[in-house]
Design a protein that fits this description.
about 120 residues
């Protein structure tokens, strides 16, 4: 069983930056592909970014490409999402997720990001 805990959310003005962290329990974090998703009330959860276990391959949603960066530190069991040039439409609850295969078996509880205009 893997538990994921996000942190780093908050309120920021448009154009500002935040860094989200997601720390995993267990000793097999380096085996997991990790992703970030976000959800706005009344809308479906949407993909934001993912990083493979090797850290070599990353992939981003078009809406955040060039502004967000996903990274991981396997020694700290942590995956990060650096968010720059934030826009009001980035406001959402952000979730990290981990999985061994093509999907994500484990999810965090979410952290709120609010971007004011």
């Amino acid at each position: 069983q893997v538990q994921l805990v996000e942190s780093g959310g908050g309120l920021v003005q448009a154009g500002g930056s935040l860094r989200l962290s997601c720390t995993a329990s267990g000793r097999t974090f380096s085996s997991y592909n990790m992703g970030w998703f976000r959800q706005v009330p009344g809308k479906e959860r949407e993909f934001v970014a993912r990083i493979r276990r090797s850290s070599v391959n990353t992939y981003y949603a078009d809406s955040v490409k060039g502004r967000f960066t996903i990274s991981r530190d396997n020694a700290k069991n942590t995956v990060y999402l650096q968010m720059n040039s934030l826009k009001p439409e980035d406001t959402a609850v952000y979730y990290c997720a981990g999985g061994l295969g093509g999907g994500y078996e484990y999810w965090g509880q979410g952290t709120q990001v609010t971007v004011s205009s």
